[in-house]
Design goal:
By secondary structure, the chain is mainly alpha-helical. 78% of the residues lie in helices and 0% in strands. The protein has 12 helices and no strands. The model has no long low-confidence stretch (mean pLDDT 86).
């Protein structure tokens, strides 16, 4: 197996394992974690939009690559900083230091680092996947992620049923941190092909000048804004007002993925 093929296989495996932690920061699991740390409604809303807001830091990705010398080195630095920081969540929860401000700081640092690492990873994958087979590769990759997401969600709900409350969260966060570390180790085996770094000058001007693309961009921006505003409170409503248990929510989550 050549280096490009190895990187493609590892990217699927790494992404599937990495979701073991990423899922904890999303949806009803993320809302439940925030509630476990005593988070208020505004803080829950902030945690819910961290993934979207942190994408703005990707604009400085070319500058970081130029500073460190390669995409892989930049990816490993950002991924290490973000994924290793997740251990503080399990440590603070185990010690009973459940402060909403602390959780917000940890998840903010994780989201910013993960956004940059994801940018570098996508850039590398784009170069190792041949254009003729890209559709097949990404379809297999997406299906694999969907299946593993469903299995992990069901596993976490089973843990919550067996160990309710803080014990359950401590268990799934520990598993999530382990998955984050394993995925980080797998990233270290990725092959970074020679690549010319560009700043993308004139990008915003080109986008704004495309009259056919701007209506789509306006609609997509409005759609993402609506989701960012409502999604954190939807999970909060399910857990607090409707008092749905995690098993039921996990089955709903799996059902919606089919």
């Amino acid at each position: 197996m050549d280096k490009n093929s190895q990187t493609r296989v590892l990217s699927v495996l790494e992404g599937a394992i990495y979701n073991g932690f990423f899922l904890i920061t999303q949806g009803f699991l993320g809302a439940g974690l925030a509630l476990e740390f005593g988070a208020s409604e505004p803080v829950i809303a902030l945690i819910g939009v961290l993934s979207s807001v942190s994408q703005f830091v990707q604009l400085i990705a070319p500058s970081i690559v130029r500073a460190v010398g390669s995409r892989k080195r930049a990816m490993m630095i950002c991924a290490s900083a973000g994924r290793l920081s997740t251990a503080f969540i399990s440590v603070t929860l185990a010690l009973g230091i459940n402060r909403q401000s602390l959780l917000l700081v940890i998840l903010s640092f994780f989201s910013l680092s993960a956004s940059l690492a994801g940018n570098f990873c996508v850039s590398i994958i784009r170069d190792v996947v041949p254009s003729t087979g890209s559709a097949k590769f990404f379809s297999i990759r997406n299906v694999t992620f969907t299946i593993t997401n469903m299995l992990i969600t069901l596993l976490y709900s089973f843990i919550f049923d067996s160990f309710p409350g803080r014990t359950g969260f401590l268990a799934i966060i520990t598993l999530g941190v382990i998955s984050a570390v394993i995925s980080l180790l797998l990233l270290g085996f990725d092959y970074d092909p020679p690549h010319e770094i560009s700043y993308g000058r004139g990008l915003f001007k080109a986008v704004a000048g495309d009259k056919k693309f701007m209506p789509y961009l306006s609609f997509y921006s409005f759609w993402r804004f609506s989701i960012a505003i409502t999604s954190p409170f939807f999970s909060y409503h399910e857990l607090v007002n409707m008092k749905l248990d995690y098993s039921f929510l996990s089955f709903l989550n799996v059902l919606f993925r089919f």
